[in-house]
Q: What sequence folds into this?
DNA sequence: TATAATTAAATGACGTGTCATTTAAAAAGG
DNA sequence: CCTTTTTAAATGACACGTCATTTAATTATA
């Protein structure tokens, strides 16, 4: 059958995303957080005082302006927003004390997930996949997210393969 | 930073899924279909007369019984359902003529996606990734989907790496 | 056989993702 | 300075994806 490897790759990616998301969802439920909300906390923990648009530019979970996502976090007291003084249209957001506290737990849950990944793959195997996946991502709009989030720093170009 | 490879892998998977889904969404929009709906058509093209539960067991896009997904396709005339004679609770679904026709176009769109993948990866690279991704999937509930869909048949075990 | 337990599907609820439209503020251009 | 264009954010709409609950039919069991 033609495209067998390509089809398998397509559904591997879909399945991996689903299974990872479910694993995160389960563990985050104790915190009353969704994976998307957790990603916002992570972004705001790394860089504070971002506008909605800037937050969107740091997220992989959503394009455009993640109004509802962030507003839910504001409503739940995890994020605080202040109107920008230079630009009355924009609001700048940061973690509240409660948000910072929750993020610490989110970090532990993420590390659980990473431990799970580590239990299946060697670092070398992860490196191989990351090198290859990066090749695809670099041709997409997400390339800038990885750059902004510093998710691609420190990569060593593989000599083998 | 600890877990750097693992974190990168996590977001690579998320970004790959998003970008692939968007690419499919754009091309399927001309057909008035979503990627999930297209997956149902593909499943029903491969195996007909499945119940809702069985369809769900062949889908990666959704767990549980995909009532609404399939009912939308019935409403749009792409899928037909008849009550099972042995079990009055269950309904068995198959593609309508219109559905078969649409699937032919869906197949072309999928092949476009696979051509795109091919333009970025060699078959050897795809094979490497598939071998590794399969290791993860095999430990999840999706393992049975890949088996049922025959998405893992014909894999040659890699000797290298 | 009558009742209880199981099962298939439908449905309600909620939070995304995505796109299109609207609103209001800022910038650009005359 | 006023009008037009651009821009940030909010909002409406729609289809998921997920979970919990309900409904109805089937099976198990006392």
A:
């Amino acid at each position: 059958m033609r495209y067998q490897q390509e089809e398998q790759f397509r559904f591997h990616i879909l399945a991996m995303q689903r299974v990872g998301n479910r694993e995160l969802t389960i563990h985050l439920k104790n915190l009353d957080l969704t994976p998307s909300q957790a990603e916002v906390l992570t972004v705001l923990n790394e860089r504070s005082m971002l506008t909605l648009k800037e937050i969107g530019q740091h997220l992989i979970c959503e394009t455009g302006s993640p109004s509802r996502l962030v507003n839910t976090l504001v409503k739940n007291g995890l994020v605080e927003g202040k109107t920008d003084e230079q630009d009355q249209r924009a609001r700048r957001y940061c973690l509240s004390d409660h948000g910072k506290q929750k993020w610490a737990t989110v970090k532990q849950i993420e590390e659980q997930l990473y431990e799970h990944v580590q239990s299946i793959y060697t670092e070398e195997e992860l490196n191989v996949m990351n090198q290859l996946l990066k090749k695809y991502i670099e041709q997409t709009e997400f390339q800038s997210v990885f750059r902004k989030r510093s998710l691609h720093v420190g990569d060593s170009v593989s000599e083998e393969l």
About this structure: The domain at 35-120 of chain A is CATH 1.10.10.10 (Arc Repressor Mutant, subunit A). Chain A touches chain B through 55 residues (CB under 8 Å). Residues 34, 36-37, 61-64, 66, 68-69, 72, 87-90 of chain A lie near DNA strand C (CB under 10 Å from a C1').
